[in-house]
Amino acid sequence: MPQIGLTLGPLFFHWPAERLRNFYNRIADEAPVERVHVGEVVCGKRMPFSDPVWPEIIERLERGGKQVVLSTLAAPATVRERKAIAELCAEDRLVEINDITALPARKGRPFVTGPFLNVYNEATARFLVRHGAATICPPVELSLEQVGTIAAGCPQAEFEVFAFGRLPLALSGRCYHARLHGLHKDSCQFTCEQDPDGLTVDTLDDQSFLAINGVQTLSAQVHAVLAYPAEFSARHISRLRLSPHGCDMVEVARTYRAFLDGRQDAEQARFVLSCLDLPGSLVDGYARGEAGSRPALTA
Amino acid sequence: MELVCPAGTPATLRAAVQAGADAVYCGFRDETNARNFPGLNFSPQEMAEGIRFAHGNGAKVLVAINTFARAGGTDPWRKAADTAAECGADAVIAADIAVLDHMASAHPGTRLHLSVQAAAATPEAIGFYAEAFGVRRVVLPRVLSVQEIAALNRAIEVETEAFVFGGLCVMVEGRCHLSSYASGRSPNLNGVCSPPEMVSYDEDATGTAARLSGFTIDRYEPGEPAGYPTLCKGRFKAGDKAGYLFEDPVSLNAGSMIVALKAAGVTALKIEGRQRGKGYVTEVVRAFRKAVDAAEKGYDPTEIDGILAGLSEGGRQTTGAYRKIWR
How many Å apart are CA A39 and CA A45, to the nearest integer? Predict the structure, then answer.
């Protein structure tokens, strides 16, 4: 049975440049992940802050033996955002496409489809493979069984599932951080920077429910899929995606590696994860074909 | 401009046509369309009859096959596409690449419209769908301002259709999993959002909690009328604030923007509401017929607002993303 690989997905949150540098340096040196996504996915307005540091981060990651994937914006709108996508798609490195806007710019060269791209069935997956899709990370609301069905019908691509982190649930034209602070998106003052894991949204009955991150809405809870390697293999899933958060991501990656290598069982792995500084409790309903907010079974 | 109106039943289709719709959109009675509610939608025979009726009265029928085909079970979508083409639909509205690809190869003679569920908002994305599948019209995501729509129309060769009235999604449609996160059922997976069977109204001494799968979406004081708990229009808490964090419980009325949308190069105006009854559809279509005719004759937006003034239903309305301040 081939080893299940680990990918560090793109960061959804607005972290200052220095924090980005420190975070990815440590990932380069210590995290047992083979692939690392870099780049802004959620909001084009943040790009002027992070753009200057990505080249050195990429170099550092590649020196650390990681394969770097350049992630692209999920909801491009402005001329500048569209231009940024076109430039990234012209690069030789592997690119992650999160909106169809990037597809013609990639001109058939290999890419990863991120969870923002709607791959709900094998016919869509095969179409995208004909245009260059090499790795497909389907939308988060699909179950492992459904991903397995798509993968079985599209053996040409490698399949990756979103396996750790607050779930990316929705995007909007409206910035919720700005709205909350009584500002407009065009003059948002980057208040999203205050919340390195997003800002938790509670119900009026004080139940943690969602999280806002600029134009993005995530789950408040942390999705953590810990199916056994044999199940991933049976579903033709060859990679797990870990989504960066403010907690110790090296420890998260080590925990998943230990679990996939059989050095820890699911209960132990969930216990280790739940001891980290997570922004919410563990859930995994989507993986089982249920509501995404269902608690992870033995957490 | 073409006025595109909703029909959830054959009777509503006839009413919409008689009230002045240029085109009616509707779907089959299954998970292939994004208004998959009990008691709604069309059997293949009803669809064929509806199309005959519309054509006989100078109107078009656009068939919505706008959900994402199920993994390992794409047959219902293929069948719906084949039936729509055989019935003589004037266009099929689709979002899923699998459905678009099937339509383009099996029914190249049937016009294809790109559903709002595909969330194509850039010239590159729209150009891709036009080139790959021959899409002739794109239904615009409800996140664009009228200035952005004008710029977009200058950069693309296909027609655009814009929502002007009815329910308002604040999230990019086709890319929202809020409903399945709470309830397990979603627009993309099941053609439903915040499904009624998961809704409860629980009363206690402090009032009523409107819940979706146990999550409190809003709370009402005793005696305060309780609304439907649509997830993105509920009241929540974040930081030290409580309120409508995503969107107020408003509906879209862009009647005052018809003139601006026309100037922006929009081909068709769309009214949301396939779940609505015959009486409602008749009233809204009649009013918008007058408004569109007035806009074509060069009336100004204030006069058009006057024509639509009776449609407020007492609920609050917004022009949504068409004005940039919405963001």
Answer: 13
